[in-house]
Write a structure and sequence with these properties.
By secondary structure, the chain is an alpha+beta fold. The protein has one domain: Macrophage Migration Inhibitory Factor (2-Layer Sandwich). It is 35% helix and 25% strand. It is built from two helices and four strands. A hairpin with a 2-residue loop joins strand 3 and strand 4. 1% of the residues are buried.
Length: 72
């Protein structure tokens, strides 16, 4: 039973994009590892920018300092 946890910043991804991620990740596991889609679990966790840090600071602080984080 594959389990994949995808963590992204909250607020930048649409429902349609999440559905596409689930479909494509599942498809990759089916194609590459021959896993059954009905036994494949994908969890998308949206993390608040106050709960994500990099470069020594919270993402929210980084964004506020005129460095928008686009997810790329």
């Amino acid at each position: 039973m594959p389990y994949v946890n995808v963590q992204i910043l909250k607020g930048n991804v649409t429902r349609e994009q999440k559905a596409q991620l689930v479909e494509e990740i599942t498809g990759t596991l089916v194609r590459v590892l021959n896993k059954k889609p009905e036994k494949t679990h994908i969890v998308i966790q949206e993390i608040d920018p106050d709960n994500w840090g990099f470069s020594g600071q919270l993402t929210s602080a980084y964004q506020a300092s005129d460095h928008p984080v686009s997810g790329n």
